[in-house]
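USER:
I wish I could look at a protein chain and see how it folds. I am handing you a single protein, as its sequence and its fold in token form. As I understand it, each token names a local backbone shape. I hope you can help me see how the letters and the tokens relate. The protein I mean follows directly.
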Amino acid sequence: MLPRLVLAGLLVTAGPAGAAEVYSYVDGDGVVHFSNAPTDTRYRKVNRGAGGAGLYRTTPPAPQARARPVAAATPLPAATPLERWRQHIRAAAEKYRIPEALLFAVMAVESNFDHQALSEKGAVGLMQLMPGTAKEMYVSDAWDPAQNIEGGARYLRILANQYGGDMVKTLAAYNAGPDAVRRAGGAVPSIPETQEYVRKVVALYQAYKAGR
């Protein structure tokens, strides 16, 4: 069973320096809750982690709340050409209020940081935008890393808003499409590829957020 990460009203777990504090807790069903305005006594303050400005680390959740370790974290890119893309990721993360660690995780699973990646279905670039999605996200050149990253972040924000900040549903829709999530009754579709995709991205997100 896939874990659920509920980010209370937001997909945001991070913000620029001086932003409001973030709190979290794991409930009895293994659901991880985040909020910047806690109303439950179980919330505990989230501490900034070592993953860079804007990233946070929480106390490891109970075993049932963790993503299954399906893959080791893909090392974050360090080569000089990729430093330019890091800047684009930071800019997109701030603009659309998406954690940098999540963008890195999606990019790792989607394209393995390859800006020339092209899937059999025609998905293009670092975050693998389909032509139709790229057009809807105002991306004129999906092969351009800056435009591709911004388009992917924008799409994640739209999906996060649609699913009330539920990261798992957001990732499932990014992979399989909102229609597939709707047909599954608002849950992760019973598509092996999508279920594996969500597990991998969540596992990598948690690893990157912790600075691994």
